[in-house]
Amino acid sequence: MTRIPGFLLFMVLLPLPVVAGEEPVELGVLVSGEVAEVVVKPGQRVAAGDLLVKMDERLFKARVDEARTRLAAAQAVLEQAGRELERAQELYERALLSDYELKEAEVSHLKARAERTAAAGRLLEAQIELERCRLLAPFNGRVARVIAWKGLQVQNSQRIQPLVELVREAGP
């Protein structure tokens, strides 16, 4: 029994029988944040791909939305730079624009293309981080222990914090 001012906390850890040679595998998410939902209980059988723990996704969804918006803006800038480059090439062919001004338009177009590529990369990163908010069973097994609870703050800056222990089960 652990005493916390104003609370009594009882912890009972009942080990589940483990077949010889089976080692529980500690599983965790690759993001830091708050646990929103623990879907499994000790002893529960799970299939590969089943949801075990879900982190609070709100911040990660906001980052995806922001990255989408930035990508759309970068795309608009690229399209404008493309039109300006076409116009500069036409004026250059008619000898109404200097070499320097044409090169400026080409550089602006290249910069806009680079920014659009970078924005697409940031969107992909944000989408991957959002996907990492869900801890899925990597194989068929049985939940040996649940270490997470709703509201748990997970910090994964140095080491992945285990949330569930899973024991692999032989085929169906």
- Fraction of helical residues: 40-55%
| Gyration radius over CA | 26 Å
Number of helices: 2
Q: List the domain count as a whole number.
A: 2
Work out the number of β strands.
Answer: 10
Task: State mean pLDDT (0 to 100 scale).
Answer: 89
CATH names the topology of the largest domain as: Helix Hairpins
Strand order of the largest sheet: 3-10-8-5
CATH architecture of the largest domain: Orthogonal Bundle
Which spans of ≥5 residues are poorly predicted at pLDDT below 50? 1-21
Give the end-to-end Cα distance, rounded to a whole number of Å.
40 Å
Strand-and-helix sequence, N→C? EEEEEEHHEEEE
Largest sheet: 4 strands, antiparallel
Structural class: alpha+beta
What shape does the CA trace take? Answer: rod-shaped
The first-level CATH class of the largest domain is given as Mainly Alpha
Percent strand: 15-25%
Molecular structure report:
With 172 residues, the chain is of the alpha+beta class. It folds into two domains: 23-56 and 133-168, OB fold (Dihydrolipoamide Acetyltransferase, E2P); 59-131, Helix Hairpins (Orthogonal Bundle), CATH 1.10.287. It is 40% helix and 22% strand. The chain is built from two helices and ten strands, in the order ββββββααββββ. The chain has helices at 58-93, 99-131; strands spanning 2-4, 7-9, 25-27, 33-38, 45-46, 51-55, 134-136, 141-146, 153-154, 164-168. The strands form three sheets. It has a four-stranded antiparallel sheet with strand order 3-10-8-5, with no helix packed on it. Helix 1 runs antiparallel to helix 2 (99-131). The chain starts with a strand and ends with a strand.
